[in-house]
Fold:
Amino acid sequence: MTNHLYANDLPDGLNPGPVVAVDCETMGLNPHRDRLCLVQLSGGDGDAHLVRVEKGQTDAPNLCRVLTDPAVLKLFHFARFDIAALLHAFGVVTAPVYCTKIASKLARTYTDRHGLKHLVQELLEIDLCKQQQTSDWGAAELTPAQVDYAAADVLYLHRLREALDARLAREGRDDMARACFGFLPMRARLDLAGWPETDIFAH
Structure:
């Protein structure tokens, strides 16, 4: 089931459980220029909640409460971008987080294909349609294809995390992954502050 909400309509009593999958759709890939349009959430129960963010909106207290709750792990694919988009839109740092893209890069070193489509296809044997990835997320009404695409971006992340955790443990890289996840909120802050392409650890 897919529920449509506006950010200020997210209920006070929303209980995402200890792990909630999160994804964002924006007007582009520059968080300073391209506004946040949609936030998708799933508690891993097969339901997706699509939260519309209105143009110019800077507050979403119930959504931000979930994003900043230290007891709720936020599960992303490419968390670096989404954390930056949420920080720029609402002024909150999302934490704690888990990123399936980073987990994949640490555990699946036999390939350079770490996109969500490739992960879901290999680890879950499910084919995702990504045709709506570059569509207009600022439109007044989302198309059924956009809704299906947006929901799919969060509906499989819990199962992916389980599969990737097993791979990370097998390769002895779970501690390394946790350290990377812990740094992601700061990495997003560095992106917004002007160091998006700079390796600050380089000589």
